[in-house]
Amino acid sequence: MIRFWRCALLLFALAVPPALAAEPMPPAGLIALDGRPAPELGLKDMDGKATDLAQLKGRWVLVHFWAGWCGPCRREMPTLAAMQQALPAGRLTLLLVNTAETDDEVFAFLASVNMDLAPLMDRDGLATRRWQPRGLPSTFIVDPAGRLRYLALGGRDWASPAYLDFLEALTAR
């Protein structure tokens, strides 16, 4: 009988990849994804500075799709800034992808929520089509290997203890 349980435990250990077994439990509302490679993402901010997700391999990245006309995006944006300030520096890279708005619209939005962030501009909508967010806001969490790990649909409080604790534990690994 003991031999059976040893075999069962060994099979379980082999079936669960070590990286997944050690991951913290995601808070409610965060959907675990299958770990497929993240789509290509190379965009410029309003100042013309380019950012390419491929160059961020080795880091956890939060890719957030939003628009200024989106009510939940307006409420959520300050919590993203608070989350970024609350997490230890360098643990999580935040990429804010604006979906097909003009610079003037984005400036007006950022001023209205008193934000000092540099959103990436998806002017032609190509990145949004590649990533296929299911509405706005949509947030993807990409692991250091460049794989899609989690998805958040709709607005949420990223600065809440549940999300901060999860992200801190996830990115500490």
UniProtKB/TrEMBL annotation:
InterPro entries: AhpC/TSA (IPR000866), Thioredoxin-like_sf (IPR036249), Thioredoxin_CS (IPR017937), Thioredoxin_domain (IPR013766), Thioredoxin_ResA/DsbE_sf (IPR050553). Keywords: Isomerase, Redox-active center, Signal. Residues 1-21 form the signal peptide. Residues 32-172 form the Thioredoxin domain. The keyword Repressor does not apply. The keyword Isomerase applies. One of its GO terms (molecular function) is disulfide oxidoreductase activity. Transmembrane segments: none annotated. It comes from the Bacteria. Pfam families: AhpC-TSA. This is Thiol-disulfide isomerase/thioredoxin. It comes from Sulfuritortus calidifontis.
